[in-house]
Write a sequence for this structure.
């Protein structure tokens, strides 16, 4: 009825405006009545099925890894076997009356289930005007065992692989937003993050270090609750949270062959070794934090905003270590066969951050943005330890004529790290035309830091630093056409002092970005970024230049009914030079880092209607990365994918992937692997 | 820099020529805007012509405005809540007679959206965000009318990442390097670390537990506070040593050898005019020995230690 009347309206427009107006009025009257009926009955839109979505089941064959299996597992880590590749379902609870429904809409997403390195689970449930619940859980395998990281000379036969791990990261995030009314909207949230697994770490003794088994076991639980308040012109958010943290890392050794560590030469005729080790950390931490923010539009010509954050994490630590073997304390030339080390430590780090800013519009085309930011952190810690050594009196199984008394070394240390930084600035934006905005501004950054460990020992103990930096900014945003934009940002900073030798000092930073939809089916984009940082201070002489240029193209002729293509190319280069003195011989050396890399990605999709009698979609493409410079590397990841729609709601998917990785200086870390995955997608 | 300036000028010039050529093309004369004040006509009228949009809109979260569930009113007038009163447009069918936030200047578009959405958890940093500075309007990422697989905005990892990468092509390339966060595998998304609406921190970085670095949300064993902190971690963040998007160097380090990452700061070269931290190494080691070429073999608690001031355990 409505449609008929409104169609009449448009026919009427051609005939005469009066008839058109009449039809509009009739339509309005009838639609308002109809709309009033439907609005109250069912918040879930009709026309959608109660359950919709898909499930991907499949099997992957991995042909085997040629080359370094540890490196393959550190970078790719995909294996063979049956998999639940993905599932995505939306359930609409439209069958029950709104009053007795638990939810209106539920969405469930799963990916990569079944001994996959990246399992993800996601759940969204919502009920109109009542609540919104989001749950996210990930189980990520983190395998890292790179021979060249532990030892750049691995290729020469030395094995110092002491930084490997095979752990799982489990991350959960669950949030419930409630909507009791339009003014106060409370929410609660719980986050969980944990690591569990094994690895290899180093036990560092006084004159040697030993690779030993390492158990990683830590967890962080984070709870918070807050409320969003929306008043007509003022909006607030207040949040109070708390976190607990524990880390029960352990190191163990013993029961196997004698561990001689990394130092084989005898000291005063004696070879060092580790017979047994048991070390355990018991770290317990907690934090209470507050997060408040507001944004407001107190006047038509001004917006203001501000944030205040405060946290005070605290750690309390107990550590116990027992080891035996033949060790030496070089400072006292004391050989010992056993050590018991007990340490307690504590630290707290009150941390306050705040910002305040505004957007002021004195004229229609001018916006002023003053801003201020401060961040103040002070970590203070203490550490008390007792290290007891059992001097070597004899070598078992000989009878010991004299048992030397144990030697105890007590220590009491305290530490303080202060880091304060501030920033104040002003930007001005001028809308020259509706299509062109130019902006400029200035900010000043200042701060101070100090790092103290008392009592001072050796060369380290007390350091201070400060930062003083003035930065000018300018840029433009230009939208010459509806489907084209172009931005330029330029920043130049000059510093009086910085915290570290490699910090930003006198620098220029620029970025240029553009995107243009040349035709309905063709979009191109390009970007260029450059950072030039120079610190000519005597004793530093740091020179750094990095630039990246990218271009991409997306071509979707006819809306991609037959084929479409997207590709990109990026070139980046980095030059860094800085001098240092060799720590042993104090000979000047230069750290030169060069990187000149090229990255290309391409993806071509072909839709073949009627091929083999079935609707078929072919995808070919992949990514190629190659670089030269300080660490010449190639990494290829081509793929091909075919999806055949066998029946409505049933598709057969097959994918081939290849991974090829090479490093010119670490040939032993290269690998090749390919895999084929096939399976079905069931869609409802 | 000169090369960049030339490239930018050339691009501007070429684009200007192209735009000028388009502007010079004969166009039909735009109808003059109506002079009578417009009044509200209701969404049903809008849906008569814009049928596809109306259908999609009816299944989108913004339908709540249509039903009067928004505190701002506009029951039955959801379209006009953003587009303004539409009676003149209905009469003339001319685009000039209706507000179109999708075609307005980004700041104006954002103002329309923020009239309701000011208090999203992160909006307070929006004005300072690079997206706001570069006129990336809300509608650049959010489809206000749409109800499709992505709803108003991408929610699934592959879609989120693709959306960000469509502009940040160089970041997509960084993730093609061998050592990276698991973004190409869609185990992570860009918004896990970045808040596209705005943030306290540069680079739109998220934070954890109020004002702790966002990295610590996952890397919980690095969070501390430690009795013996490694100052750069606290003062300049993880990016002092790591390239977060991706690197050709193991563990996403900034240099190919660990010792160079360390020695560039611990250079043993005193700086008298403007003191900087960490220049003196705490001990002397023979770098010709493979034992000492990877500093973190021994200084394994490089992110901070509770037990040892030299970060050995």
């Amino acid at each position: 009825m409505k449609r008929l009347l409104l169609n009449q309206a448009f026919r009427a427009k051609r005939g005469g405006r009066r008839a058109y107006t009449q039809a509009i009025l009739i339509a309005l009257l009838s639609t308002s009545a109809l709309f009033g009926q439907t609005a109250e009955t069912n918040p879930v839109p009709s026309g959608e099925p109660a359950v919709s979505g898909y499930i991907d089941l499949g099997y992957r064959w991995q042909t085997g890894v040629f080359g370094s299996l540890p490196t393959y597992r550190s970078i790719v880590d995909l294996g063979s076997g049956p998999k639940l590749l993905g599932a995505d379902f939306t359930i609409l609870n439209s069958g029950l009356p709104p009053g007795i429904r638990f939810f209106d809409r539920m969405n469930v997403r799963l990916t990569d289930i079944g001994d996959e390195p990246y399992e993800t689970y996601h759940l969204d449930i919502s009920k109109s005007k009542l609540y919104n619940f989001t749950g996210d859980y990930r189980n990520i395998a983190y395998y890292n065992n790179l021979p060249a990281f532990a030892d750049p000379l691995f290729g020469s036969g030395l094995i110092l692989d002491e930084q490997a791990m095979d752990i799982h990261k489990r991350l959960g995030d669950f949030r419930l937003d409630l909507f009791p009314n339009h003014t106060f909207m409370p929410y609660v949230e719980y986050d969980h993050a944990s690591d569990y697994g094994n690895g290899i770490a180093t036990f560092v003794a006084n004159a040697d270090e030993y690779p030993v088994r390492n158990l990683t076991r830590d967890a962080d639980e984070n709870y918070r609750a807050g409320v969003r308040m929306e008043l007509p012109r003022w909006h607030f958010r207040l949040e109070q949270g708390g976190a607990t943290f524990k880390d029960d890392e352990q190191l163990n050794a013993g029961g196997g062959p004698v561990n001689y560590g990394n130092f084989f030469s005898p000291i005063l005729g004696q070879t060092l070794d580790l017979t047994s080790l048991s070390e355990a950390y018991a770290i317990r931490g907690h934090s209470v934090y507050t997060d408040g923010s507001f944004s407001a539009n107190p006047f038509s010509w001004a917006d203001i905003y501000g944030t205040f954050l405060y946290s005070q994490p605290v750690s309390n630590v107990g550590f116990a270590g027992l080891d035996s073997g033949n060790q030496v304390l070089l400072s006292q030339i004391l050989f010992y066969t056993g050590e018991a080390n007990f340490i307690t430590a504590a630290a707290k780090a009150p941390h306050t951050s705040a910002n305040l800013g505004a957007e002021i519009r004195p004229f229609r085309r001018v916006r002023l943005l003053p801003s201020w930011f401060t961040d103040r952190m002070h970590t203070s810690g203490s550490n008390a330890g007792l290290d007891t050594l059992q001097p070597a009196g004899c070598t078992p199984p000989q009878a010991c004529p004299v048992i030397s008394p144990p030697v105890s070394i007590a220590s009491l240390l305290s530490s303080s790290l202060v880091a304060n930084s501030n920033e104040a600035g002003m930007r001005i934006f001028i809308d020259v035309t509706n299509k062109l905005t130019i902006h400029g501004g200035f900010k000043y950054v200042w701060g101070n830091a100090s790092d103290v460990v008392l009592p001072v020992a050796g060369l380290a103990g007390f350091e201070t630093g400060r930062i003083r930096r003035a930065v000018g900014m300018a840029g433009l945003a230009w939208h010459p056409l509806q489907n084209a934009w172009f931005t330029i940002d330029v920043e130049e900073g000059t510093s009086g002092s910085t915290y570290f030798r490699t910090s930003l000092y006198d620098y220029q930073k620029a970025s240029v970005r553009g995107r243009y939809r040349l035709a309905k089916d063709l979009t191109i984009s390009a970007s260029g970024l450059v950072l030039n940082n120079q610190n000519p201070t005597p004793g530093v002489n740091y020179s750094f230049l990095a630039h990246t240029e990218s271009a991409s193209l997306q071509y979707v002729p006819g809306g991609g009914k037959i084929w479409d293509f997207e590709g990109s190319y990026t070139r980046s280069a980095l030059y860094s030079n800085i001098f240092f003195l060799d720590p042993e011989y104090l000979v000047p050396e230069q750290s030169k880092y060069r990187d000149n890399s090229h990255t290309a990605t391409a993806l071509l999709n072909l839709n073949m209607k009627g091929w083999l009698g079935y609707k078929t979609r072919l995808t070919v493409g992949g990514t190629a990365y190659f670089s030269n410079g300080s660490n010449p590397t190639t990494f290829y990841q081509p793929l091909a994918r075919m999806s055949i729609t066998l029946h409505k709601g049933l598709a057969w998917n097959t994918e081939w992937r290849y991974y090829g990785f090479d490093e010119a200086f670490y040939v032993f870390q290269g690998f090749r692997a390919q895999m084929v995955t096939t399976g079905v997608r069931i869609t409802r | 820099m000169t090369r960049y300036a030339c490239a930018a000028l050339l691009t501007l010039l070429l684009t200007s020529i192209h735009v000028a050529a388009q502007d010079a093309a004969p166009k039909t004369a735009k109808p003059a805007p109506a002079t009578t004040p417009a009044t509200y006509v209701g969404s049903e009228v809008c849906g008569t012509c814009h049928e596809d949009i109306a259908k999609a809109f009816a299944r989108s979260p913004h339908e709540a405005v249509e039903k009067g569930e928004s505190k701002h009113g506009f029951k039955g007038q959801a379209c006009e809540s953003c587009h303004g009163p539409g009676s003149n447009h209905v009469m003339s069918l001319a685009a000039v007679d209706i507000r179109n936030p999708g075609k307005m200047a980004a700041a104006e578009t954002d103002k329309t959206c923020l009239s309701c959405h000011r208090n999203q958890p992160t909006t307070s940093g929006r004005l300072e965000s690079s997206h706001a500075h570069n006129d990336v309007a809300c509608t650049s990422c959010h489809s206000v009318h749409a109800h499709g697989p992505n709803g108003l905005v991408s929610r699934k990892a592959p879609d989120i990442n693709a959306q960000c990468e469509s502009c940040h092509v160089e970041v997509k390339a960084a993730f093609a390097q061998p050592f990276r966060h698991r973004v190409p595998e869609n185990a992570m998304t860009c918004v896990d670390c970045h808040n596209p609406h705005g943030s306290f921190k540069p680079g739109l970085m998220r934070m954890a537990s109020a004002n702790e670095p966002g990295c610590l949300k996952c890397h919980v064993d690095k969070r501390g506070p430690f009795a013996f902190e490694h100052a750069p971690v606290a003062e300049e963040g993880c990016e002092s040593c790591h390239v977060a998007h991706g690197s050709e160097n193991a563990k996403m380090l900034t240099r190919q050898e660990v010792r160079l990452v360390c020695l560039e700061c611990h250079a043993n070269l005193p700086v008298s005019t403007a003191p900087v931290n960490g220049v003196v190494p705490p001990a002397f080691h023979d770098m010709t020995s493979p034992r000492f070429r990877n500093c973190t073999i021994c200084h394994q608690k490089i992110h901070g230690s509770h037990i040892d001031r030299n970060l050995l355990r």
Summary: Chain A touches chain B through 224 residues (CB under 8 Å).
